[in-house]
Amino acid sequence: MPQTSPEPVIRARGLTKTYGAFTAVDAIDFDVAPGESFGLLGPNGAGKSTTMRMISAVSRRTAGELSVLGLDPETHGPEIRSQLGVVPQEDNLDTELTARDNLVLYGRYFGLSRAVCRERAEELLAFAQLQDKAGAKADDLSGGMKRRLTIARGLMNTPQIFMLDEPTTGLDPQARHVLWDRLFRLKEQGTTLVITTHYMDEAEQLCDRLIVVDKGSIMAEGSPAELIRRYSSREVLEVRFGSDRNAAAAEEVAAIGRLAERVEVLPDRLLVYTPDGEGALERVVERGLRPTTSLVRRSSLEDVFLRLTGRSLVD
Ligand SMILES: Nc1ncnc2c1ncn2[C@@H]1O[C@H](COP(=O)(O)OP(=O)(O)OP(=O)(O)O)[C@@H](O)[C@H]1O
């Protein structure tokens, strides 16, 4: 029997948003399958939040088609919003309320009974590892805890699609890992996740598939591994020669035959894209070039972004 792919839970065709003469989202096409963890990866201003707001039925599209759970956000905003969980870029908790009351009150907005809200709040406090903070004012929680509480709050209505705008921006590495672990659990439970991020490692950790967006357009689409395969080499040799020597060294490195698929010159180092980083380093050294430091690593989404846009995504 031919395999039929499931109906997408989000379908965008020619989706566009303009603000006056400025085009923030420029005719983008994408589908999100049920249970998928889908990412929008791009720098600040790429149009990620604007796209999220159109999906969440809080901002109207200017042109194109958009369907969320089979419904048009233009005409079915309330129905769509009741099925979505939303974690905005900035935490907007009620700072004077306790962690528990933030959850209960939010559940009440969705028309859930007080008893259901209380039960669900306890479950989600446990999920967010905040049981011992249940009675603490939201304002007194750390940044990572506030973020976990915002995530718990977004799950109060047991959403079919969970939308997270830059979930870990501003958090320290440990807090980010705790949060990734929680999101990974949701993914395992089959919740569809839509995540925007400008962190490559976050996209690699959490997303089954992603679109790389820049200036309102989609530059590439695929799984992290596919994108790396398609747009980068297997390994990258990073060499530094000192800032005044990098450009000259780049020409010499590029001149070494069959050494590299591509050489990128960054202000502080050269990136040599090659199937064999150690071998490439040996040949650089054989040529009498003496880098001050060298490092061989696997290609990452950062390399994909650099290839696609000519710019580095790191702020
Ligand atoms: N209400 C608005 N009026 C005018 N321009 C806007 C408005 N909202 C967003 N923009 C512009 O649209 C572009 C895309 O913004 P958007 O917030 O979607 O980007 P982003 O990729 O989410 O980046 P960030 O992570 O900084 O939010 C930006 O140039 C932004 O200044």
UniProtKB/TrEMBL annotation:
The keyword Transit peptide does not apply. SMART domains: AAA. The keyword Transferase does not apply. This is ABC transporter ATP-binding protein. It comes from the Bacteria. One of its GO terms (cellular component) is plasma membrane. It is found in: Cell membrane. It is a peripheral membrane protein. Belongs to the ABC transporter superfamily. GO terms for biological process: response to antibiotic. Its main location: membrane. Gene3D superfamilies: P-loop containing nucleotide triphosphate hydrolases. Keywords: Antibiotic resistance, ATP-binding, Cell membrane, Membrane, Nucleotide-binding, Translocase, Transport. Residues 10-240 form the ABC transporter domain. InterPro entries: AAA+_ATPase, ABC_transporter-like_ATP-bd, ABC_transporter-like_CS, ABC_transporter_ATP-binding, P-loop_NTPase. Pfam families: ABC_tran. GO terms for molecular function: ATP binding; ATP hydrolysis activity. PANTHER family: ABC TRANSPORTER ATP-BINDING PROTEIN, ABC TRANSPORTER ATP-BINDING PROTEIN NATA.
